[in-house]
Specification:
The protein is of the alpha+beta class. It is built from four helices and ten strands, in the order αββββββββββααα. A hairpin with a 4-residue loop joins strand 9 and strand 10. The chain is elongated and about 55 Å long.
Length: about 200
């Protein structure tokens, strides 16, 4: 094979490899989803994600995560259900982060979430769901129909000294619960017991 033929062969081979890579990337980035918007509208489509925007491959329309309430992703026999949440570390914090949440507990008007602040729908993995949030796991709490979700947990002691204050702020409509926590009759990190007590004793 002379040099001209070799160059042509090499160029064509590189082009084929590039086409295969681009095809695989395009296939990988596609997501079959149900999107529920904040106005309660629901659509089902196939999207690709670029940053915080989802682009419908059916209509070409672009949806920002700020417009979205929930997303269900369909992958073979698996359904991944994410909530798009505005998260604060504490009640009066001015800093708001956008997160992908997985609901792990709900009782009455209170919901608990695990949250990932990486907004890539393809890479977020909530495959392991802990049975308790009494230690080692951060957990985030939200009142249904309210805008913000709050950090109510701590990991390996980091931030734990502020948990009682956060609980007091969040459950300020339930004085008996706050007293129980202050007296350690309910541990400050036993968030499931706290929520259940609240719904039994203080919720409307």
């Amino acid at each position: 094979m002379d040099i001209t033929s070799w160059v042509k062969f090499y160029t064509v081979k590189k082009l084929i490899i590039l086409i295969i890579i681009l095809f695989n990337l395009q296939s990988y980035s596609q997501l079959k989803v149900n999107i529920k918007f904040k106005n309660s509208e629901v659509i089902r489509t196939i999207v690709k994600q670029i940053g915080e925007e989802l682009i419908s491959l059916k209509t070409g329309e672009t949806y920002n995560l700020n417009e979205i309430d929930e997303i269900k992703i369909f992958e073979k026999n698996l359904i991944k259900h994410y909530f798009i949440l505005d998260v604060k570390s504490y009640k009066n914090s001015k800093r708001v982060q956008k997160g992908l949440g997985q609901k792990v507990y709900s009782n009455g008007k209170i919901e608990l979430f695990r949250i990932n602040f990486i907004l890539n729908l393809k890479t977020v993995d909530f495959s392991y769901i802990p049975k308790t949030f009494d230690n080692k796991y951060e957990v985030f709490i939200k009142r249904k129909n309210k805008k913000y979700t709050y950090n109510i947990g701590c990991i390996d002691g980091i931030g734990c000294e502020k948990i009682k204050k956060r609980l007091k702020d969040f459950f300020n409509d339930c004085p008996s619960l706050i007293r129980m926590i202050k007296r350690n009759k309910i541990k400050k990190r036993a968030i499931i017991k706290i929520i259940d007590y609240y719904n039994e004793s203080c919720s409307d």
